Amino acid sequence: MNKPTGGYRWTIVALLFFATTINYLDRQVIGLLKPTLETEFSWTETDYSNIVMAFAASYAIGLLAFGRIIDRIGTKMGYIISIIVWSIAAILHATAKSTFGFGVMRSLLGLGEAGNFPAAIKSVAEWFPKRERALATGIFNSGANIGAVVAPIMVPWILGSYGWQEAFIITGAIGFIWLAFWWYMYEVPARQKRLTQEEFAYIHIDDAPEQVNAKPIGWGRLFGIRQTWAFILGKFLTDPIWWFFLFWLPSYFSTTFNLDLKKPSLPLVVVYTATTIGSIGGGYLSGYFIKKGWPVFRARKTAMLIFAICVVPITLAQFATNIWQAVALISLAAAAHQAWSANIFTTASDMFPKQALSSVVGIGGMAGSVGGILFPILVGALLDSYKVAGNLTGGYNLLFIICGFAYLVAWGCMHLFAPRMEPVQVPAPEPQAVA
């Protein structure tokens, strides 16, 4: 069992990786076009914050809805619906004629993109044993970073060659290419003809027998479980930090260090390349601890504490005297976030049965999005006030201090609600009466 025959499960990870890459490519386009669109539509920082909030609000609703939908209709169809909606929404940004129009399109994009992570996390739980889930999650989650690396190269080139409308159209259309591969190649292990019996047995090596045919858990009951709140608080306190990195880092480098966003941006490429290393390395580290004989909960929590500590040095960005000092500090923090993300998603699959996993991921993702709604209010108001005072960099410095300590607070909350990350026990289905 230690060396299973066959590796089709890694093909599934590749599909999830490319979907997540496209997801973040489409999401980040507006951040890179922000200076151009600010001039075109006379946006203030508060206007832009409202657009980000529109995305976050719809993303929150979409996560809750898709989590439940995917648990009911399955990962294959759930992913298909998700990527069709978000790809169409990404393309329709090119038709926006006002700030309100962009808000509407971001809302539609948020609804569609919300299906990515509930479907991907459930796919990993279906295709991998616990010892490999963090690594598999880290690999597909690194697609977020690759998307963020590709975007600063691809979007400025399209902008300079064709215009901002074409940037939305071209990037949005990529999702339909992925859709064809997903339709042809994906199926759950029990129905996947390309899967060997040995690999199928390995995938299910640590499934709990009492949970194989467990009943789905309703939302009401999920909110009454301590482990759900551990995941909710972990996501609520840390997801907004990543969104801040995505939507405001280009503007930060532009205003603080005069980075020209109409050209390929090497500092942003470096930052998001570092996050790729963090995502895969973070997934590997907890898996390494498990292979060394550590209990699963200890391996996950130790890894996550290390990553939380690695974010703290971003508070020193205020003392950076050149762009590369800032890049180094932000790269470490962003990489640590992705390492944290790979593990926090895996804690959900450690604690909850597969029948409820997408719902839990959706609930936690919704909480992260609510944080993503609230944090931009602070960001926009803070940056506008500092801009009026002529010290926009000071606003960013204060925000970096908040970012630096968010993960330690989140780790403490998760430990309080789920000290040993005990698996949630669900009742077996009642026996059917024989007529």
How would you explain this protein's 3D organization?
The chain is mostly helical and 435 residues long. It has one domain: MFS general substrate transporter like domains (Growth Hormone, Chain: A), CATH 1.20.1250.20. The protein has 16 helices and no strands. It has helices at 8-32, 34-41, 45-73, 75-92, 99-113, 116-127, 130-161, 164-185, 197-203, 219-222, 226-257, 266-291, 296-311, 323-351, 354-388, 392-417. Helix 3 (45-73) packs antiparallel against helix 15 and helix 13 runs antiparallel to helix 14. The longest helix has 35 residues, at 354-388. The radius of gyration is 21 Å and the shape is globular.
Distance between the termini: 42 Å
Number of strands: 0
Q: Summarize the biggest pleated sheet.
A: none
CATH superfamily: MFS general substrate transporter like domains
In N-to-C order, the SSE pattern is HHHHHHHHHHHHHHHH
- CATH level-two architecture: Up-down Bundle
Query: How big is the Rg?
Result: 21 Å
The CATH class label is: Mainly Alpha
Low-pLDDT regions:
428-435
* Portion in beta strands: under 5%
